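Postdoc handover notes: sequence design on the structure in folder B. Input tokens:
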């Protein structure tokens, strides 16, 4: 009697999920995101038209790094834009 009880308790703790999943798909897709531009449209907006630009400021490169005091070399330039969103009242 004790052995049957122990077997019943052990059977209740077995995982049933692997047996209920069904057969595997013949050609499953690879997990993860596609590489490069193949994974869809990026969330970058285009730069605003010139008539929407109200103010331009220059941000010159400092002479040295603020942490290591090493010399900085400009390799490229970027055009960042900041948009003011009016407050709702």
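Designed sequence:
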């Amino acid at each position: 009697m004790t052995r049957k009880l122990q077997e019943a308790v052990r059977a209740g703790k077995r995982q049933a999920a692997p047996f209920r999943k069904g057969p595997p798909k013949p050609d499953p897709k690879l997990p993860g995101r596609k590489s490069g531009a193949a994974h869809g449209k990026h969330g970058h907006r285009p730069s605003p038209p010139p008539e929407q630009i109200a103010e331009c400021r220059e941000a010159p490169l400092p002479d040295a790094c603020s942490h290591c005091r090493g010399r900085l070399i400009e390799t490229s330039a970027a055009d960042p834009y900041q948009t003011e969103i009016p407050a709702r009242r």
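Context for whoever picks this up: The chain has two helices and no strands. Don't rerun without checking with the PI first.
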